[in-house]
Amino acid sequence: MTIIPTTQVDQDSFSRFHQSGPVKRGLPPEAYTDSAFWQSEKENLFPNNWMLVGFAHEMSRPGDALPVTVGDTPVVLVRNKDNSIKAFHNVCRHRCLKLVDKPINVGRILKCPYHAWAYGLDGQLRTTPYFAGKDPKAAPAGFNPEEHGLKEVSCEVYHDWIFVNVNDNAQPFAEFMAPLVKHIQGMDFDKVKLVGVVDLGIVNCNWKFLMENFIEPYHVQFVHSSTTDQPLTDHYTIVDGHCQGSAIDLDESAEGGDGSGDTLAVSSRYLTLFPTFVFGRYIPDQMGVHLNIPLGPDKTLQRRAIYMTDGTELDSESAEKLKQLWIDVHKEDHEMCERLQEGRKSSVASDGGLLSPHWENSVRNFQELVVSSLTEFSGSKEKQEASVA
Ligand code: FES
Ligand SMILES: [Fe+2]
Predict the structure, then answer these.
(1) Number of the ligand 1 atom closest to the C-alpha atom of 92
(2) For the packed helices 316-343 and 207-215, what is the interaxial angle rounded to 10 degrees?
(3) Would you give the DSSP letter of residue 356?
(4) Ligand nearest to the CA of 97
(5) Residue 353: partners with Cβ closer than 8 Å, 6 or more residues away
(6) What is the pLDDT of residue 377?
(7) Residue 1: per-residue pLDDT
(8) pLDDT tens digits, residue range 163-219?
(9) Which is the most buried residue in 69, 117, 279, 363, by most CB within 10 A?
């Protein structure tokens, strides 16, 4: 049986990962450091899943175009006249130039800067000046512009969050969102107000460490002792299909329980949807979403959108205070994640480390999804190649 779709990865490491027993091993270090493993994720994991790539409020006007990447694949998000958001491969159909290289409002036309081919916001190819010769409007014989529009990418918007599925192989979007919807029942999205987006920059670690760190509650009381007040033993983990996380239920009347003070001491839901969507709900009045963009085996770009959920608009001083609190919390996490990455350079890490059967069962489930996501698609690719041969 193929355990993992890359020959460069030490198969012994994966057999340790698969060992049965009450205390499980984590993923082997190659999963976080190896370029072949990263390549496999780019080919098999990111394109075949729903990936959060942007916030809709950051492209609010028709004509707004936002370039994003999924693995290495350039994608452009475009706000249309009917207010819908479409996604396209960010590549001109003439000579395959990357079409949009920075956030911009393109008006009504996406024009390639190289030879001025122009596309509508719906992706249709409109003009190809001088393509056939000296006549600016003539088309070469047999050339049908309708066949050469921008290649569309599956795109769905849920509230403020824009997801794409590059290879169109993911589960239906409603199915993808279902566990989140279930765990946040009762939240009134009409009352949600954006506080702001915090740019957290590039974190020097693999994207999976950021996910795993968010998923487990074990570290919270140790790492965030000055920024949160959430006793470990009040937490419980959530393992629900492709939704992993944890939660804590506290006495709502406890002092400091409004989530907008200097520390967090509130009932919370920490939820992820595989692979990269991160959602935090801080009852009664706050939520946050992390945008994690994997850039390489040891580099991940992270941003956080902060929202109030009770209809209040924070004044600028309160908003800044809240942003700063979250920057502080993220920095505490980033330091740990970067040290997890550093630790993978040691031969000691070859056994994958150990996972708490109680607090890190959710992490384990996430890691199993990583492995199955790679084997599943690599398996189907092998089958395709075999049938072509
Ligand atoms: S590459 Fe875009 S018009 Fe030539
Ligand atoms: Fe944390």
Answers:
(1) 2
(2) 110
(3) -
(4) 1
(5) 25, 26
(6) 59
(7) 41
(8) 999 999 999 999 999 999 999 888 899 999 999 999 999 999 999 999 999 999 999
(9) 363
Considering only CA atoms, which residue is closest to atom 4 of ligand 1? 115
Taking 70 as the pLDDT cut, the residues of the chain under it are 1-13, 251-265, 376-389
Ligand 1: nearest atom to the Cα of 128? 3
Ligand 1 pocket by Cβ (under 6 Å): 92, 94-95, 97, 112, 114-115, 117
Write down all domains in the chain, each with its CATH number in brackets: 1-49+172-389 (3.90.380.10), 51-156 (2.102.10.10)
Write out the DSSP string of 207-267.
Answer: HHHHHHHHH--TTHHHHTTTTB---GGGEEEEEETTEEEEEE---TTSTTTTS-SSSB-S-
The pair of structure tokens assigned to 83 is 């207010």
> Is the preceding peptide bond at 275 cis, omega within 30 degrees of 0?
yes
pLDDT tens profile 3-52: 454 444 556 667 889 998 999 999 999 999 999 999 999 999 999 999 99
Q: At what angle do helices 361-388 and 207-215 cross, to 10 degrees?
A: 140
Full-model pTM: 0.92
CA of 213 to the centre of ligand 2 (A): 6
Q: Which residues pair with 105 in a beta bridge?
A: 64
Ligand that lies nearest to the alpha carbon of residue 150, given by its number in the listed order: 1
Q: State which of 112, 127, 150 you would mutate to test the pocket of ligand 1, scoring each by most atoms of that ligand within 8 A of its C-beta.
A: 112
Of ligand 1's listed atoms, the one at least distance from the Cα of 115 is: 3
Which amino acid residue places its CA nearest to atom 1 of ligand 1? 95
Within the chain, strands assigned E span: 24-25, 51-55, 64-70, 73-79, 85-89, 104-105, 109-111, 118-120, 125-127, 152-158, 161-165, 193-203, 235-240, 243-248, 268-273, 277-282, 286-296, 299-308, 354-355
Residue 324 Cα to ligand 2 middle (Å): 15
Give the residue, out of 88, 97, 125, with the most ligand 1 atoms within 8 A of its beta carbon, to mutate for a pocket test. 97
